Amino acid sequence: MAAAWHSVLRCALVCGAFIIGIHSHELQHRRSASGQLPARSSSSASVGGGGAVRTSGRSILEASAVAASTDSAAEARCPALSRDLLQSVAKQNTVMLAVANEKQWDFTLNWLEHLQAAEISYAVVAAADVLTSQRLAALGQACFEHIDDEIPKLGLTWGEEGWRRMTWAKVFVLDMVADWGFDIVVSDVDVVWFKDPTPLFTEHPNADLLFGEDGTQSLNEAGDAGLEVTSSPFHDFNTGVYLMRHGNRTTAWVHAWRQFFAKCTNHDQHCAYDLMRDEPGDGRDANDPRLHTGWKGQLWMGVMPPSIFMNAHTHYLQQLHKVKQVEPYAVHLTWTYNGAAGKRARLRDMGLWFDPPNYYSSGSFVTVDLDLPEKPPGYNDWNENEDMVTFYLETIHAQLQQAYVGMALAVASKRAFVLPTLQCYCEKLWYEVVRCRVVDAQAMPFPVPCPQDYLFDPAHYADNPVRHGTPMDIRESSFLDNERTPQEVKESLLIIQPSAALQCTDCVKEEPGEGGIMLLMVPPALPDAQLLPLLEPYSSYRVWRFSFAGVGSTQRAYGGFSDAAAAQAFDQRMEWMTTDFCCRREEEAPRYHKTDAIVVKLNMTSEFKYSAMSNAVTAQR
């Protein structure tokens, strides 16, 4: 069963085009009733990009803000696709192609920021809707319109026909330009480029297609920056990042792939697998032996290892580029959870998301010093999956309880909460773990830093307060290490330490802390109504770092909310924003009496919750 879930869910949620317009990620096995091919050209009229705001000398985010404030932003649109347009931006006869829509706009800006930082100047974006067309034109970004008006009518939920057509959008664009003589780099907009990939065309002169690997393992030796040593059409390659050299072979392949849309009822990547693996042959290039024949033996294809064309797993968890001692070209935000919000959070975790300046400079913050678990001897060599899962759940719940205390103080003091670096001793997958890892990353050592999307649904941090309780203002664990966070924030730091040594409820004690940071000792277990007045003289400190070192238990550190309704609303949010751990192995579950706990809802309050404490106090009055 694990293999089946792996195949279905990985293709559904990891592979293929990046579609932010999808709000449901549940598996649905609905098939399209339509086999017709979308039209080759945009159905909407287009005009030139007059009045564009150039990005030279400023960041993409700054330019976007300026563009949004100009009258011309609502008038200018991307022009029609033409060979001259591509020629105007091509570098060494190469263009980078991407498709973007309104739902992806913040990802598109982030993608453009990283292109600018990497000095990649040959990107052209296909605008999939009018608003995106206007925004791109106002930025002065090379673009054209490719609008399929039928997509919204056909459904955007995973598995519906509109969703399928969205995944094929890059293929349709590629089909239109394949005969124009350009080498092409195809990129989704949930990709971060670190350096220009055009040298790969020179390094592999016989390659027709070079794909990114969709998995989490490379068998290349350390220092080997070449193609994946086991490269073949039967690799799970990814169609979100790849290079295509112009030529008769690739032109024929692209046209065949587009025509396959009418016959293959799946998303573009799955259908690319079917096509590439159709009588692929067994040839190896004499001069570049990691190139393999594919598609009836008619072209040469290769796969870049996930240490070089990375994903969120190999970059953030394994840091495979460091393990393999190679420089990555890009990271593609696959292997993340909870949709677009999860991708955005993971990019923030990695320090690769560009937020506006006030995200880093405005307001004040609370964070906590975690009392971290000690790794059991030999943990990384354990073979009993259930023992590892049990240890992970115990330790992550203890850490979440500590974060819960810090979040409560942040809410009470009207500050944002900076997540601590929580430690994960197990992975989260869409299917069962093996030794707490994905099956092809068994060498990954624990602990790893927990990504936000392992523990929380970031879309639930602040949505619908009436229904889901107190909204949270959350910053990622890397926030105080981010170069974009001002030094004046990082250096304005106060350590707050509840201490049982204080024999009072209305006093504090200042002591010099490590590195010259002030340590403020406060009485333990005070609720907000008593603690906040004591902290008021220290409100000018931008960062309050809460320490548990002076008390015997997490619960003794802070008493929470004096108001029962506030405590209830806070706990409601805590329950709403946590996500699930997945998954125990079904074949093991009966032996451990865990058949009802294959998937486990994570819990911020495994030891105590403030709403229960407030209710108890109210009942005693």
From TrEMBL:
InterPro entries from the UniProt entry: Glycosyltransferase_77, Nucl-diP-sugar_transferase, Nucleotide-diphossugar_trans
Entry EC number(s): 2.4.2.-
Similarity comment: Belongs to the glycosyltransferase 77 family.
Keywords for this protein: Cell wall biogenesis/degradation, Glycosyltransferase, Golgi apparatus, Signal, Signal-anchor, Transferase, Transmembrane
Zinc is among the record's keywords: no
Main location: Golgi
Entry annotated with the keyword Signal: yes
Name recorded for this polypeptide: Glycosyltransferase
Region (Disordered): 33-53
Annotated GO biological process: cell wall pectin biosynthetic process
Lineage, opening ranks: Eukaryota, Viridiplantae, Chlorophyta, core chlorophytes, Trebouxiophyceae
Pfam families registered for this protein in UniProt: Nucleotid_trans
